[in-house]
């Protein structure tokens, strides 16, 4: 039996796709042939992998029977267009777009709900949740046994890289224009992004909630297996290239014991807790790292059953690409 896998990465020229390829190499994933795929606009470029440039080809023309596993790191439309073709060819997939329903492709965060993989049959279809849901699940998982959790309130300050390479370029361009005293003309964003905060990420529905906020709530409930958990989510756009940050309030039914909370966070995989008196930031701590940083762990000012924490993580690396690769590592024994 072969001890390597032939793999495809769809969306290989995007910020997440390129990082995913990098992590596959860093973690010495057992790859035989690597196929890098993208839209016709990006086909023909190349991505460095194990010392050689791998050419990116059009996904439209790809035969999924050539690979055992495909990472879908492009948008929802691409996943919806090609997931069925991959499954029909016997190719397992890990989707990072959130396009597939949970009963078809359950969202998995290895630090929180790896056990759901045991019940799946080949070809596997698994979702890697949004970076926000992944980050929150990593931190909530070790606390569930200590809290009678009633409600979660999240304010997420998201990096522009959550919206792709074009958003990163737009923030850089706006910053340069403002620093050089030139008139600012927003393009990707509908208003000034540099040196500013935008109160929502994407369009809001009639109730005022964005797709990203609703996805965060849905996926977090699914990963934590708490379908009735009350979650309030507000996602704002921060003028940061990489690294999401979160102010999180957890409401318990009983008093919070900080000694036990801190001990659980210290022992949990995927977490780095910062001691009281200091706090983590995306640029100074999280970017380029494989853990979620946790700081400002404290009870409520006037409510002992309230727990407040500050989180930051690399949205592209830890929140997206690494989580998908970790899921694949758990599936290796069944795919080889």
Structural class: alpha/beta
CATH topology type of the largest domain: Dihydrodipicolinate Reductase, domain 2
Major sheet details: 7 strands, mixed
The helix fraction, in percent, is 25-40%
The tally of helices reads 9
Identify low-pLDDT runs.
none
* Average pLDDT score: 95
The strands making up the biggest β-sheet line up spatially as 3-4-2-1-5-6-7
CATH class of the largest domain: Alpha Beta
Q: CATH superfamily of the largest domain, please? A: Dihydrodipicolinate Reductase, domain 2
Which sequence of SSEs, written as H and E, runs from N to C?
Answer: EHEEEEHEHEHEHHEEHEHEEH
The percent range for strand residues is 15-25%
The value of Rg in angstroms is 20 Å
Give the total of beta strands.
13
Measured distance between first and last alpha carbons: 7 Å
Write down the domain tally.
2
CATH architecture annotation name of the largest domain: 2-Layer Sandwich
Shape: globular
Give a structural overview.
With 336 residues, the chain is of the alpha/beta class. The chain folds into 2 domains: 5-128 and 320-335, 3-Layer(aba) Sandwich (Rossmann fold); 134-314, Dihydrodipicolinate Reductase, domain 2. 30% of the residues lie in helices and 24% in strands. The protein has 9 helices and 13 strands. It has helices at residues 15-26, 76-88, 110-113, 131-140, 165-179, 211-224, 258-267, 282-286, 317-335; strands at 5-10, 31-38, 46-49, 52-58, 69-72, 92-95, 125-127, 149-158, 230-237, 244-252, 271-273, 292-299, 306-313. The strands form 2 sheets. A 7-stranded mixed β-sheet has the order 3-4-2-1-5-6-7, sandwiched between helices. A 6-stranded mixed β-sheet has the order 9-8-10-13-12-11. Strand 3 and strand 4 form a beta hairpin. Helix 1 packs across helix 9 (317-335) and helix 4 (131-140) packs across helix 9. The radius of gyration is 20 Å and the shape is globular. The model has no long low-confidence stretch (mean pLDDT 95).
């Amino acid at each position: 039996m072969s001890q390597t896998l032939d793999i495809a990465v769809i969306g290989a020229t995007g910020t997440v796709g390129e990082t995913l390829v990098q992590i596959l190499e860093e973690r010495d994933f057992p790859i035989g042939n690597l196929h890098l795929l993208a839209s016709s606009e990006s086909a023909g470029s190349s991505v460095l992998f194990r010392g050689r440039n791998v050419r990116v080809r059009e996904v439209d023309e790809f035969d999924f029977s050539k690979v055992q596993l495909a990472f879908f790191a492009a948008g929802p439309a691409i996943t919806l267009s090609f997931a069925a073709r991959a499954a029909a060819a016997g190719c397992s997939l890990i989707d990072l777009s959130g396009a597939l329903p949970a009963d078809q492709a359950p969202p998995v965060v290895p630090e929180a709900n790896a056990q759901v993989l045991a019940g799946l049959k080949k070809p596997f279809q698994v979702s890697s949740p949004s970076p926000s849901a992944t980050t929150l699940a990593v931190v909530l998982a070790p606390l569930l046994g200590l809290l009678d959790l009633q409600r979660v309130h999240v304010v997420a300050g998201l990096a522009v890289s959550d919206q792709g390479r074009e958003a990163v370029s737009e923030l850089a361009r706006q910053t340069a224009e403002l620093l050089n005293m030139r008139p600012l003309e927003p393009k990707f964003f509908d208003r000034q992004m540099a040196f500013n905060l935008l109160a929502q990420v994407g369009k809001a529905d009639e109730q005022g909630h964005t797709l990203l906020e609703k996805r965060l709530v849905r996926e977090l409930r699914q990963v934590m297996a708490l379908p009735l958990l009350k979650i309030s989510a507000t996602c704002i756009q921060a003028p940061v290239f990489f690294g999401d940050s979160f102010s999180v309030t957890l409401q318990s039914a009983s008093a919070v014991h900080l000694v036990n909370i801190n001990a659980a966070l210290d022992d949990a995989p995927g977490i780095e807790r910062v001691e009281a008196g200091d706090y983590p930031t995306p640029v100074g701590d999280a970017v380029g790292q494989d853990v979620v940083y946790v700081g400002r762990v404290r009870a409520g000012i006037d409510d002992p059953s309230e727990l407040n924490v500050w989180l930051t993580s690399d949205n592209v690396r830890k929140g997206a690409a690494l989580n998908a690769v970790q899921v694949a590592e758990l599936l290796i024994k069944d795919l080889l």
